[in-house]
Write a structure and sequence with these properties.
Blueprint lengths: L1 H14 L6 E12 L4 E5 L5 E5 L8 E9 L5 E11 L2 E12 L2 E6 L2 E6 L5 H5 L6 E9 L5 E11 L2 E12 L7 E7 L2 E7 L14 E9 L2 E9 L9 E5 L9
Parallel strand pairs: 3-5, 5-16
Antiparallel strand pairs: 1-2, 1-4, 2-3, 4-5, 6-7, 6-9, 7-8, 9-10, 11-12, 11-14, 12-13, 14-15
């Protein structure tokens, strides 16, 4: 048991080396989710970090971030400086769902919407399935839209925790399944609720929630959740407006 705990700690340290306190890192913004007051930032290697901030940086901005690590592994920024701009980025995350030519990818509790270039059967067939851990290359459009340029499956996840906004809800009963429609920007996707799943009464339309998602042979299913009321903005400043084409770094 002790060895397992030590091994787990080493894995966390490798993913987030500054998890014991303050962190400083640089990366490319791939999403700004104003409802949650966050930026989703990826490193050159594709490591996704969720940064709670009042910064107005948008997708494509290369930012330098000083932050404190929160108990859930996300980050509260004390400073976000824009130091460049990128037209491409790399995302390493877990595929949560695919719908209408959009792949929804999770990393560090955030969900990112990535469009395929064309909605064709051949393109859809090459996209990793829900539960897959994938390396995804994207281009960043003028309006911040992400378009997939490559996708490689590198592993499989059994379950993850995500944070998202509820667009609509059909509660499950003891004998019948239900569903949650979640909204990421202007895109939506549906996560089934298994029969017997009981969600807190605070999970209602428009609420930002934390959900545990499990993956099985039938795809993704929400197995639990809670109202997410801990998303403080942080006390960061948003400074700098550098130029360049740096795609970010760890």
């Amino acid at each position: 048991m002790k060895k397992s705990l030590v091994a787990g700690a080493l894995v966390l340290a490798a993913l987030y080396p500054a998890a014991a306190g303050a962190a400083t890192f640089k990366g490319t913004v791939v999403a700004r989710q104003s409802a949650r007051h966050i930026l989703v930032v990826t490193s050159k290697a594709g490591l996704v970090r969720t940064v709670h901030t009042t910064s107005t940086a948008t997708a494509g901005a290369v930012v330098s971030v000083s932050a404190a690590v929160r108990p859930d592994g996300t980050f509260t920024a004390s400073r976000v400086a824009v130091v460049g701009h990128a037209k491409q980025a790399h995302i390493r995350g877990v595929v949560v769902a695919r719908a209408h030519g959009v792949t929804f990818v999770s990393g560090n509790r955030s969900v990112i919407a990535v469009r395929t270039r064309r909605v064709l059967a051949s393109v859809e067939a090459g996209t990793p399935l829900p539960g897959a851990v994938a390396n995804i290359g994207v281009t960043i459009g003028v309006a911040g839209a992400l378009t997939q340029t490559s996708a490689t499956t590198v592993g499989q996840s059994n379950n993850i925790v995500i944070q998202a906004t509820v667009d609509s809800l059909t509660p499950a009963t003891a004998t019948t399944p239900g569903s949650l429609v979640l909204k990421i920007g202007t895109e939506t996707f549906t996560i089934p609720l298994a029969a017997g799943t009981t969600l807190p009464a605070t999970i209602v339309q428009g609420a930002t929630v934390s959900l545990t998602i499990s993956f099985g042979t039938d795809g993704a299913t929400a197995t639990g959740g809670e109202d997410d009321q801990g998303d403080d903005d942080g006390g960061d400043d948003d400074s700098g407006s550098g130029s360049g084409s740096d795609s970010g770094s760890d």
